[in-house]
Write a structure and sequence with these properties.
alpha/beta; 3-stranded parallel β-sheet; 19% helix; 14% strand; elongated
Length: 101
């Protein structure tokens, strides 16, 4: 967190953001990183970035519930399409996902 804050301290005139990826080195879901973002929320809250782009393409990311604890001035972008599969996700499948904040 401190390093990211030092990097963006002198940035002006653009929107700063941080992307958190859970891994693209394999197509096997069981070997990729998993776990909810909940433990990271206190760190995200103190980062001097405007936007968080978080991977939620699979169940490995857990619930979006903790994101409601971010400061209201933070923007959230959700990555919801899984790039590690050849399956093309249907619009109806994407519509069944419920993201709550």
């Amino acid at each position: 967190m401190d390093l990211i804050n030092r990097v963006v301290d002198s940035v002006a005139g653009i929107r700063t953001g941080l992307h958190v990826c859970r891994g693209n080195w394999s197509r096997q879901e069981d070997v990729l990183l998993q776990g909810a973002y909940d433990p990271l929320i206190p760190y995200f809250s103190r980062m001097k970035v405007k936007q968080f782009v978080l991977e939620y393409a699979t169940e490995r990311a857990g619930s979006t519930d903790a994101l409601s604890n971010l400061p209201k001035d933070k923007e959230i972008g959700l990555g919801v399409i899984n790039p590690r599969t050849e399956e093309i996700e249907s619009l109806s499948l994407c519509a069944t996902r419920s993201w709550r904040f």
